[in-house]
Amino acid sequence: MIRDIAAKDILENLTTYRFTILTVLLAILMVVSIIVSYGDYEMRLENFNLNHPEAHSSNVMIPPTPLSIFAKGEDAHLGRLYYVKYSGIEVQPTEQSVNRLFSLFTTPDMLFIIRVMLSLIAILFSFDAITGEKEQGTLKLMLTNGTNRFTIVAGKLAGRFALVILPFAILFLASAVVVSVLPDVHAGGDYWGKTATFLLSSTVYIFAFTTAGLLLSSLVHQSTTSLALGLAVWVLLVFIVPQTGMAISRSVSGVPSSEGVEMQNRLAQIRGIYERIHQDPGWTMAGQRRMIKEFDDANSQIYESYRPKLLAHIQLTKELARVSPAGALTFLLTDLANSGVYEEIRYKNALTGFAERNADFINQTRQGTMEDFHYDRSSLGEILSESGKTDILIIILASIIFAGLTMVSVAEYDPR
């Protein structure tokens, strides 16, 4: 019976303008996403080829990851040129002018399409699942014929979910194949493992919003009312909750900006040089080395006091944004694309370790050849073992909660 109800819903919607328009719109958006995101990736790769440091240099730069075509995240920031100096780690202030011009427009990557557009499409396909049957009089007829309410919910959910996930899954797999054969993209086992997890996570996310739409449809008795509620809940979960979480975390944590920390470092250096000139006009090499050591110690103290606050701020932001499945999905998919918060922290740790191991070479207090900086993006296992599994569980939990509330609501629903 569940299969019959699902098949009925699918067949009825396949011939509607709603299905045609939304599916065509989704296909256009995904094609545009791949074209624009690949162009952005090529520009960042060109920037890397033009600016990457030579071997045994104290400067550090890593190439962009091809997975950023699907979720750009923080990859543009990770791919900047970092200068590792005795005064600390500084970042290249500017990029190519074409990149700066391109940054005026938000790249519509796959993450944006899934997080914003697909969640909206899921709501639009499920908002009238129960109210529509009531308005047509078929809900009362099904219950009169002895159809179980759980069966109705399961069939409706399966049918409406299939209408969204099947076109998306086909288009996404086609996109993944196209990206894998593009120039400058090396698609190995890690690429396919992460894209498969990307698709599975998106599937659960779409299911969560489909159940949310079904829940709202079972709370009211008119499709227009459930549509209005669906749009309100969509805006709340996709935009308001994640942004509010970040705003609250920013105001509560009181973490200074990175620019403020860098300015504090520079002021400490200027103050130290000024005092040393007045105290010891005849600088010797030994005095210079002592000053460099003092700068290193001062920078380390500032960094050590700033880092715990920053990590606490990041953790609080993630916890508040994860109240919504859209927030959890954003963290999960950017981490899978090696362009998220986890990758940024991991990369900054690698930079700090490189600077500490080569401090004598950087300060020119030791002769010899400096080591090359090597960095490998995090693997799928590392991502899932860290915060990835938490984000997946949050999205699954949201689906279970919405489905459970839907069953409770339908059990009390009046079909008259």
Q: Order of strands across the biggest sheet?
A: 1-2-3
Please tell me what the overall shape is: elongated
Tally the helices: what do you get? 16
End-to-end separation in angstroms reads 22 Å
- The total of beta strands comes to 3
How would you describe this structure in keywords?
416 residues, mainly alpha, three-stranded antiparallel sheet
Written description of the protein model:
The protein is mainly α and 416 residues long. Helix content is 73%, strand content 2%. It contains 16 helices and three strands. Strands 1-2-3 form a three-stranded antiparallel β-sheet, covered by helices on one side. A hairpin with a 2-residue loop joins β2 and β3. It is elongated. About 1% of the residues have low confidence.
Quick rundown:
The chain has 416 residues and is mainly α. It has 16 helices and three strands. Helices cover 73% and strands 2% of the residues.
How do the helices and strands line up, and which of them pair or pack?
Elements: H1 2-14, H2 17-51, E1 59-60, H3 75-78, E2 82-85, E3 88-91, H4 97-102, H5 110-126, H6 131-136, H7 138-144, H8 149-180, H9 189-217, H10 223-253, H11 258-279, H12 285-321, H13 325-336, H14 341-357, H15 359-362, H16 380-411
Antiparallel strand pairs: 1-2, 2-3
Helix pairs in contact: 1-8, 2-5, 2-8, 5-8, 5-9, 5-10, 8-9, 9-10, 9-13, 9-16, 10-12, 11-12, 13-16
